[in-house]
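Hey, sorry to bother you again with one of my protein questions. I've been puzzling over a protein and I'd love to understand its fold better. Take your time with it, there's no hurry, and the full record follows here:
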Amino acid sequence: MDRKRIFSQFLILSILVIILFPIRVFAENSINAKRFLFQSTFGEKQQKISELEEIGVDEWFQRQYNSPITSHIELYDYYFSKLSSADKPYSRNQAWLHATLNGQDQLRQRMAFALSQIFVVSRQHDVLSDHERALASYYDLLSQHALGNYRELLIEVAKHPAMGRYLDMMFSQKAIPEESIKPNENFAREIMQLMTIGPVLLNMDGSTIKDNSGEPILAYDEQDVPEVARILSGWGMTDASSWGVMDGDWFQPMTPSENYHDRESKYVLNTHFPSGRSAQQDLEQLVDTLLSHPNTAPFVSFRLIQRFTTSNPSPEYIERVASVFVDNGDGVTGDLYSVIQAILMDSENVEGRATKFKEPLIAVVNFIRISRKEETASSPRDFYPSVSLAKYHDNWIQLPLNSATVFNFYQPTDVPKGIIADNGLYSPEQTLMLGDNYKYVMDRMNGLITNSNFDLHREYECNGSWNRGTPTENDLKLALQFLSTQAMSKEFYDGYHYLHNEYGHNPRARCGSFKFFIASSPEFWVIE
């Protein structure tokens, strides 16, 4: 049987077991540190695990907070100047890969990636596909505010030209009935539905509030949407030649034109917006109204928990994190630095009761970060052109700022049909690995393993130690660095011995097959 078919069947069945019946024993501190770093970074080697054990989590958080912010737009400019004409449109993907592989601000970059799936913009938009540098600027905005305050993040996201164009707030103007002009409602709807309060009322633990007939109660009604659109009217492109012309500055926040802003009174979510207010004043009051809404804390907290620790947090876990979102202990609402600490250090996660299937893109970056050589050059370079993300730009199933719709790559409640769904659980990331997508992703992983131009650390090369008849125990020790679990399962151990026997006469084939076995194993794909 084809080895990929064997491994795929092994992966699917084993993942079901791990998600439904996670192992909860964490006997060694090093394993705790390793698991923590798989959740909070794009993957780390043993050196970083040992460093975390030495300095402690509190110091690690502080160092991450103070780490210099990796600039995607600077990296974009570098790669745009170096890549071939054919690959220049993909400079942003190379910039993102560089940032995730080499940025010291790993926690910030992981949070930025999570936020990019809440505040969605996409190059698949017909205009933004020609403005990759503006998208790099937008990603930098997410990075800059990733450990900051949700209020400031919301305001800056609303004013960024990439979001303004993607959801049509840019050049949205007050109503002129006789000319059939009215404010655009796209961003007005999504800032409520996807970025703050969500569609239905929630308890603090994320559970749905229902009416007497058992139906969910809507968080806002359709009259709120046009009112919010009125509030958000009047924002245009900085330095544009005239209203409605996109020839201005894509890298500066949009600026208000009060002639196009609706200055009459509005009423949204039982809140009065007085007449005579400027566009900036209306925007700030709207953000304050949304941020103080009791839905926002559990709505956002659930989504962030899903991106870091588990797709199925308990109501108690959600409520504890949401409480920190409401008040960080110093009376501040929306402090994302406190929120991410609450997510990662919650007892449900620390005690090993949280499991998570990796997002495909994160899994690929995990493999590269763990197996590659450390970058020592003082300036960026084109990492691994043979496996460059640029090559997969148009058909890779998950790339930053490249979802097909405003609803991200998946919905929070998505789940493949079968035993996981039957048990009332979610696994949205796993829906990206169904059907042909699984084969495609594993082909890419196989390319990382077999391509001779991939800059592997010597101990992971097939012409290195594994090719010299290395003892089985050492092979397994190397493999353990890739695995997200605290120990190897019996199935994994037996699988290795099968490959050792099958390819024992051909060490190079044994090595390649074993590494592919690692990359396709549930111990690699599921953090538990």
Notes: Residues 3-56+355-527 form one domain. The first helix runs from residue 3 to 20. Confidence is low (pLDDT under 50) at residues 17-31, 376-387, 464-471. The radius of gyration is 24 Å.
